[in-house]
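Input/output pair, single chain:
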Amino acid sequence: LRLRRPRAGLRRPAPPAAWARMPGAAHDASPPPPRCWQAQTAGERTAAAEPLHRPPLIDVQLNILSFLSPQDLCHLGSTSCYWRAAVQDPLLWRYFLLRDLPLWASVDWKSLPDVEVFNKAFSEESDNALYDYMAVYKKSCPQSRRSLKSSRPRYGAVTSFLQSLVTQTEPRFAMFGPGLEELDNSLVQKMMTCPEILLVAGLPQRQIHGIGSGVSFQFNNNQKFNILTLYSTTSVERRRAREEQAVAVNKMFYQENSIVGNQQAMHYSVIAQVKKVCEVVDGFIYVANAEAHKKHDRQEELARILAMTDPALGPPNRPLLVLSCVSHVDVKRIPCVYMAHQLQLNLLRQPWMVQDTVAASLAGLINGIEWLLEEANCKNAQ
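Output:
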């Protein structure tokens, strides 16, 4: 994205008064000006001082500022009124937003930028009124969300600890999605065999007919949680579909066609065994296939997410963690912000987060689990 000179009529901020000060004239305690300065004529002194009165050209200034980090820009803006106005240029922050969006590893229901922010051509006349790109960037970037989280009151951790002493049952989560079955590396198998990342705590006694008990894991703060993994079909059928590069028939759902307006809408319901799972879990983990070279039917995926999180099956505020997963780190991935828009997660009413994850190394998984446990604990405390 090329930073261009703004349209005519855009007022530049006035240079700070300090730029107009002449050397040696700050206050009486200053040392006397050098002899060479005293020897200059008034005209020579005025000509030498003129560049201090002129701020740099706006287009050159924007290009220079574009080499700074957003954090450095915010620090620069706190130095004077001039730079406070200069660093808020909407074109500059739109450039940062489009540049950094694909690099962010997570996005949630509070920080997802509106699709129109980066989907339309920049128009200074309209965008100045519609979008504060600086505010959008600061709200959406993971660094700002982490700093906001660290600034929250510390009594939340004490509340969670006291609640863990009272609560006898560990939180349960239903895990499903095409990323469990379509990737070359198995996410579940890796979770079961990496005690240095996620420790298996055993198989609980609570059984769900046709589903089983799931697997209990122990988080790094010794909190235990249970994951019920739901596959679309049997292991033999999944293996055959993967070898033939075909789509296995999903037996977790049955389709119910409905008419919305003049169009037929896709609507799914869950089978009886899955319904029992949805009624007892505290949240959901959806494993999405984020590999860019494969075809995806995100509309169908959304319909199945809506079926699992149907408010008729349980509390409507149960959190949803979307693991945007690839097989290994060298595979080109769909950025998590784009994944959130492809799945239309903004249509959901419960808290959600999309977290980039690598199945081969479990990179990103712990960050997602930490968020999910925090949201589930907050829900149970309400």
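Residues 5-41, 44-54 have pLDDT under 50 and may be disordered. The domain at 17-147 is CATH 1.20.1280.50 (Monooxygenase).
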